[in-house]
Automatic annotation (TrEMBL), chains A, D:
UniProt membrane topology term: Multi-pass membrane protein
Subcellular location: Cell membrane
Protein name (record): ABC transporter permease
Region forming the signal peptide: none
Pfam families: BPD_transp_2
Main subcellular location of this protein, as a coarse class: membrane
UniProtKB/TrEMBL annotation, chain B:
Keyword ATP-binding: yes
Organism: Mesorhizobium qingshengii
Identification of the protein by name: Sugar ABC transporter ATP-binding protein
PANTHER family: CARBOHYDRATE TRANSPORT ATP-BINDING PROTEIN MG119-RELATED, D-ALLOSE IMPORT ATP-BINDING PROTEIN ALSA-RELATED
Family per similarity comment: Belongs to the ABC transporter superfamily.
Every ABC transporter domain range: 14-250, 273-517
Keywords: ATP-binding, Cell membrane, Membrane, Nucleotide-binding, Repeat, Sugar transport, Translocase, Transport
KW Nucleus (keyword) present: no
Pfam families xrefs: ABC_tran
Molecular-function GO term, any one: ATP binding
Xref: InterPro entries: AAA+_ATPase (IPR003593), ABC_carbohydrate_import_ATPase (IPR050107), ABC_transporter-like_ATP-bd (IPR003439), ABC_transporter-like_CS (IPR017871), P-loop_NTPase (IPR027417)
Length: 338, 525, 291, 338
């Protein structure tokens, strides 16, 4: 290979790299332009902050899901786990299942927001860990284990709440859902900080690189001396942790934990990750992509609602645009490689 | 530390005592014992399926033995995982490459031990620089930030070797590290091994290229059918190839490369390629691009194609086979111009290809031997209604099993469970079953033992004798010299020379393979 | 001792508090009547509820009390029960076209939607700009309630404009997001009409966040949580369909017939849905649960 | 390898084979025994036929899904496609969207059951084909394409039905859902016949061989002369066809086509396939396994309902048993391999 060839190749790769990460981003930008043209008030800061707040819940889970999918795994239980952790947080925050309905709490009987947050993330991480162990020890595929988890956690949630919601948290807890720091909603800040941390972990730590390695080829990773099983368990702990964190934020935002929360979230979350360019076969992907994927879905939903598009048409448009966004990304990549 | 043998200056580093390994009914190893000392290169030889890889996998902690004992450095050694082996300084180069395709070369080299900077964060810059130096040791000049999936098998092999060499090791286990390499790289590796020997590293070396083994090994241990067939020692004079072969196969050695003197081929031109150029494939951006290849292939001849790694031989084969897109040029088969747009088209026209990367391009690992065998001839083995004629299919497989002496338990057995050489024979059988007009074989004996290799050569010769035009790409010059009626050499996507098989020798070929034709310079892309 | 009677109590979806309450009331009345109860949760699937009925028929239950998920899709299963001689009482949603149903006890969702919209109209005699949050597309109650709301508002189009109409799938979190988008796009409305209480509570949070505390928000189902919000003046009203009363009546009718073939006095018991506001909170069935 | 070794291996493999295919079956048998002991009337023929009727809908789709998953693909759109095809069948059967609610039709305006059936399967197969083309031509992963399909088909269904159901078919059509042949429900017979045909296709035809090959190693399949893209498209056509057939049977059974039909079916269907031993990574699996998987889920649901287990507990138990069934299967296989 000649020197000229090499340089060219390198240059090619850099441009490719740039555009590859920009594929979904370009698409997102195009969407924003379209919606702004349709209705300029789409760009109103209030609306933009609404969108950031809205994507923060599924976005947080999508961060954890990125780890899981990078290992070629999947977690279908996140929606149910979110409901479960939210219910646990509510029980802790209210000091029991009694008095579940008062919308304004004096905050005297409960254990406070910190205990609630802790309970949510610990339960989430533990539940994820149990699923991870089932995957690695019992050798049951992640799809099956977490599909089981999906129904088990929903059943547990309904059992502890007896079907009803638990509502009414104190102001300090509610701040995590509804508060602002300057003009920025607190959930959006939590999401941003979490995304940056996840990016650093995946890109700049040995652990993160090991996650990619396991997803790239688990057998080769094992032969290279990585503790594959531990890494697999850890990613389910991480996604469980984020489901717990998202549950806490959602409960704080709604001032209520509901047994029916999070139904169908697994598909939204996985979409965000996949649209962001992470391969379901593992080893390829990034946190940045996931954030863009989550934003794309959020902007699409908000923009269509903003224009009061009928819900039937919304379904059709959202489905087509998801496919188009990914098709565009593939097309761009194949062009750039030439 | 107590010494095991008074005569030896070095204590035994690793001793295997009576190791046995069973798989689902197969006994892969039976009561095998051997030992190795620091600064020693031990050759581990045997036919395909003799149990070499199994033994090495036990040593590197991939799987436990069914029974027996291993002693490392004077202590009982029972690794639970490759990690345990690594910690003790036992480093392995696996036969089936163990790189992670989605990661870059640099990351593969530093897997699990990436250099970190402040805050314990991975330093990508240092990783790139250090890995550039590490791969340079084995003569590789690719960009370390290239993903491994874009490398050829040979390059991957070199990366794997480079990685192993960069680890602190006391014992290096090499399972067929040279099977994908050409002479130059092999020589470089052998000299590196020699240096390691002087640094008191012990090396266990598996290869089917006996010349290599004879050149570098201090001692050899030979396995046959999972049992110890004997030890050979250089101290008692140089190790002769026939002696090794006799131990391996259990009978007196037949002639290596048993090609009858090259016949003058007078067949018609069957396949003719003119001005063939390929485009850069977006899926394989690093692949060599063919740059105007002219080649003729006559009915009944074996055309050897020689070249260094990256010379474009594989690309030529793929282009003819319709697997890659062609930018310009014509292909003529039996006087008719053809333009296969896919392998299916090429196959329908009577062209077959045995690809070089068996694992990724040829075998269906989880499927049985029968479907692996018949996949390219489904039409042939089915009736007009699309139903498989299993009886016929089985009979055909049984015939090839005998002809190629494939060692297998049953037609249902997953091909995964076969040794590499036997897998290769099944793939050959896949194409023989089609009875093609043109058969292109890319590294047909990669990982195939001497006995089987001779058989494969004989098969190729028989095919040619039946009038089939055979194009054989091989990185093993002795093999090219032994079977080819005519030989062409390639470099950088161009043909650099050709000669009759009888006129050729290694020196001449090496010279042509390294030759940059004047007009090839400066327009390599 | 004589074998106790067994009845099947089947509701469409125990994921929703409304139906949990319904099943609880069925349970309580069954206990009071001294009969065994086999519970069934349709899990929002007509095939699941059908399968439950089929299983119950094999077990030879003496009567069936059911709130069908979908009045058409459940008709064949109910027909089968009738054919097998098992008395069926339907609650809440009425199955048309099946002969021989013992009785129906219900409050029409269309009527409820009409009541909800009428209450809103009454609150804004001079007209209003309205957001309308609809239920899960395709689901029976969503269709009926939507119909009721439009029955009232469509003729009054000039004064009462629905400026924003979206589904929030009966879910609180979605209602919150959708309302946020609606507020950003259209500014403050006068009223938000929602097809259930969960969505009303979600819309309430969205308005609270923007400090739009004077938007009148209407829910549906009169869940305790909504009643609390009505009491506190955060919701303007919610529609009460008396699911508990419906359930208990249905069980009484079914058990009476199963015991000694007592025909019900009326084959059709229709409770009129009412809108619960701050002033008539005491009329709400579940007001006791808000203490 | 000694002769003894070879014989031994053969024996080993046969036992392994037997037990491997019997893993889920053993588990199913155990479940049936447990439920019968708990309540002997579980074995009442009527109940058993009920179960067969109940599993026939998702079972039919699972047959098609087996083809898809064998190629390492997935189809998340089946639930929505079922609703869509059902609505199309209803429109054809009733001769339009007018008069959608009369439960008893005179049958004069419609086009009859055959046209309805044909419409359902043709539309299903065509929709599957379009998705298959998007997968092979646009190079968008099956997960994304069919996730898009999931929302698109639901939106289309709602659009043609305007949200409501279309009900009331004539007796000849209803027979396919409610009829009996001897004591056996018609849907169960349709399912059984379809299963046998699928088994024959996958096991004994060259097309079936090609499906396994493409799933086992797509690149090797291409280099062996298989038209990989065509085969990929074909499996989505097949699953679409079965979604259409299932839709017809379901509509006939419920005497109604609903816009909300089939929600969540994708997970049930994929569970059945995976529990039956088909690998989500392609190349491994069988129709027999899928039938057992579908039966296992059906028996579990029916049995729990039969024993009046509370719905929340049902969720928990079903989730756990799904995981256990697969874990048992893996354990059995690993035992046999030793
Ligand atoms: N995972 C496995 N399951 C079943 N049988 C196996 C497995 N691995 C190896 N074997 C069998 O064990 C025997 C020894 O195989 P092994 O790979 O050690 O041979 P080898 O000497 O390395 O051959 P080659 O030179 O072809 O690489 C073979 O008969 C093979 O079929
Ligand atoms: N499938 C592939 N994908 C991406 N790159 C490839 C692929 N195959 C080959 N290459 C690239 O093409 C170049 C030449 O390939 P290769 O080494 O196979 O050539 P060759 O002449 O056939 O040599 P050899 O036969 O020794 O392997 C290498 O630099 C490699 O990086
Ligand atoms: Mg080997
Ligand atoms: Mg090559």
């Amino acid at each position: 290979m000649s020197v000229a060839g090499e340089q060219n190749q390198r240059g090619g790769i850099n441009v490719a790299r740039l555009l590859m990460s920009f594929g979904p981003l370009l698409f997102l930008a195009a969407l924003i332009v379209v919606f702004t043209v349709l209705k300029p008030s789409f760009m109103d800061p209030i609306n933009l902050f609404n969108i950031t707040r809205q994507i923060s819940i599924t976005g947080l889970i999508a961060l954890g899901m990125t780890f899981v999918i990078l290992t070629a795994g999947i977690d279908l239980s996140v929606g149910s786990l979110l409901a479960f952790c939210g219910m646990v947080a509510a029980v802790v925050a209210k000091g029991g299942t009694a008095n579940t309905l008062s919308l304004s709490t004096s905050g005297t009987q409960g254990y406070g927001w910190f205990a609630a947050l802790l309970a949510a993330v610990v339960v989430g991480a533990a539940a994820g860990g149990v699923q991870g162990l089932a995957i690695t020890r019992l050798k049951v595929p992640p799809f099956v284990v977490t599909l089981g988890g999906l129904t088990v956690f929903r059943g547990l949630t309904l059992t502890i709440s007896n079907g009803g919601p638990i509502s009414g948290f104190d102001a300090s807890m509610r701040w995590f859902g509804t508060g602002l720091i300057g003009p920025v909603p607190v959930p959006a800040i939590i999401f941003a900080v979490a995304a940056i941390l996840c990016h650093i972990v995946l890109r700049y730590t040995r652990y993160g690189r090991a996650v990619y390695a396991v997803g790239g080829n688990a057998e080769a990773a094992r032969l290279s001396g990585l503790r594959v099983d531990r890494i697999l368990v850890s990613v389910y702990v991480i996604v469980g942790f984020f489901a717990g964190l998202a549950a806490f934020v959602l409960s704080a935002r709604l001032n209520s934990s509901e047994a029916v929360a999070g139904i169908g979230y697994e598909l939204t979350v996985i979409s965000a990750v996949v649209i962001g360019g992470t391969s379901l076969f593992g080893g390829i992907g990034s946190v940045g992509g996931t954030v863009v994927g989550a934003a794309l879905i959020g902007v699409l939903q908000n923009g269509l609602q903003f224009n009061n598009v009928s819900s039937y048409t919304q379904s059709i448009v959202i489905g087509l645009i998801l496919i188009l966004a990914v098709a565009f990304d593939r097309w761009l990549k194949s062009r750039v490689r030439r | 530390m107590p010494t095991a043998e008074a005569a030896s200056p070095e204590p035994i580093l690793l001793a295997v005592e009576g190791v046995t390994k069973h798989f689902a009914g197969v006994t892969a190893l039976s009561d095998v014992s051997l030992d190795i000392r620091p600064g020693e290169i031990l050759g581990l030889l045997g036919e395909n399926g003799a149990g070499k890889s199994t033994l090495l996998k036990i040593l590197s902690g991939v799987m436990p033995p069914s029974s027996g004992r291993i002693i490392f450095d004077g202590a009982d050694y029972q690794p639970a995982s490759p990690q345990d082996a690594k910690r003790l300084g036992i480093v392995t180069i696996y036969q089936e490459l163990s790189l992670i395709p989605t990661l870059t070369v640099a990351e593969n080299i530093f897997i699990g031990r990436a250099p970190t900077g402040p805050l314990g964060l991975v330093s990508w810059r240092r990783m790139e620089e250090d890995s550039r130096a590490i791969i340079a040791r084995v003569g590789l000049t690719i960009d370390p930030m290239t993903p491994v999936s874009a490398l050829s098998v040979a390059e991957q092999q070199l990366v794997e070797i480079a990685r192993a060499l960069s680890l602190k090791s006391r014992l290096i286990i090499m399972d067929e590290p040279t099977s994908a390499l050409t002479e130059t790289e092999v020589q470089r590796l052998l000299s590196i091994m020699d240096r390691l020997r002087r640094d008191k590293v012990a090396i266990m070396f598996v290869t089917h290229r006996l010349e290599e083994a004879a050149a570098i090994c201090d001692r050899m241990t030979v396995l046959r059918d999972g049992r110890l067939a004997g030890h050979l020692d250089r101290d008692n004079g140089p190790i002769e190839l026939p002696a090794i072969i006799e131990k391996m196969v259990g009978r007196a050695a037949s002639e290596l490369y048993a090609r009858p003197a090259q016949r003058a081929i007078a067949g018609d031109i069957r396949l003719s390629v003119r001005g063939l150029r390929t485009v850069r494939d977006p899926e394989a951006p690093h692949a060599i691009v063919l740059d105007g290849v002219d080649i003729d292939l006559k009915a009944g001849e074996i055309l050897g194609v020689a070249g260094l790694v990256g010379s474009g031989r594989t690309e030529l084969a793929r282009a003819i086979f319709g697997a890659d897109r062609i930018a310009a040029g014509t292909i003529t088969l039996d006087g008719r111009q053809i333009a296969p747009a896919s392998p299916a088209d090429a196959i329908a026209l009577g062209i077959g290809l045995v690809p070089e990367d068996r694992k990724h391009q040829a075998i269906f690992a989880a499927l049985g031997i029968l479907p692996n065998f018949s996949v390219a001839s489904l039409g042939h083995f089915s009736n007009g209604f699309g139903f498989m004629a299993e009886r016929r299919e089985r009979d055909a497989l049984a015939g090839f099993r005998k002809m190629l002496s494939i060692r297998m338990a049953s037609a249902e057995q997953a091909i995964e469970g076969l040794s590499g050489g036997n897998q290769q024979k099944v793939i050959l059988a896949r194409w023989l079953a089609r009875d093609p007009k043109v058969l292109i074989v890319d590294e047909p004996t990669r990982g195939v033992d001497v006995g089987a290799k001779t058989e494969v050569h004989q098969i190729l010769v028989q095919l040619a004798a039946r009038g089939i035009a055979v194009m054989m790409i091989s990185s093993e010059l002795p093999e090219v010299l032994a079977v080819s009626d005519r030989i062409v050499t390639m470099r950088r996507g161009r043909i650099t020379g050709q000669m009759q098989g009888v006129e050729a020798n290694e020196e001449k070929l090496m010279e042509l393979m390294a030759l940059d034709r004047q007009d090839a310079k400066g327009q390599a892309r | 001792a004589e074998d106790k009677l067994t009845i099947l109590g089947s509701v469409p979806n125990l994921g929703f508090p409304f139906f949990v309450h319904m099943l609880n009331e069925i349970k309580a009345e069954a206990a009071a009547q001294g009969v065994n109860l086999t519970e069934s949760d349709g899990q929002n699937s007509a095939t699941k509820q059908t399968a439950d009925i089929e299983a119950a028929l094999v077990q030879k239950v003496n009567a069936i009390v059911i709130s069908p998920l979908d009045v058409n899709a459940l008709a064949p299963a109910i027909e089968e029960a009738v054919k097998a001689g098992v008395p069926v009482v339907t609650i809440d949603r009425r199955v048309d076209g099946v002969e021989g149903i013992l009785a129906h006890v219900g409050a029409d969702n269309v009527k409820g939607g009409e009541a909800e919209a009428s209450a809103m109209v009454a609150a804004f005699p001079n007209g209003a700009k309205i957001f309308h949050l609809q239920g899960q597309p395709g689901a029976g109650p969503a269709i009926d309630r939507n119909k009721g709301v439009h029955n009232v508002l469509d003729p009054l189009k000039d004064k009462y404009q629905i400026i924003f109409e979206q589904t929030a799938n009966f879910a609180r979190a979605e209602a919150l997001s959708v309302t946020e988008a609606g507020l950003a796009a259209n500014g403050k409305p006068d009223a938000i009409v929602c097809a259930n209480d969960d969505m009303a509570l979600g819309a309430m949070e969205a308005c609270a966040a923007r400090n739009f505390t004077d938007v009148k928000i209407y829910g549906f189902d009169a869940l305790p949580e909504a009643l609390v919000a009505v009491r506190d003046g955060k919701l303007a009203g919610t529609v009460e369909q008396f699911p508990g009363e419906q359930s208990r009546t249905a069980v009484r009718i079914a058990v009476a017939y199963a015991k000694d073939k007592t025909e019900p006095k009326e084959k059709l018991v229709l409770l009129t849905p009412i809108v619960i506001g701050k002033d008539n909170l005491d009329k709400a069935e579940r007001i006791g649960e808000t203490k």
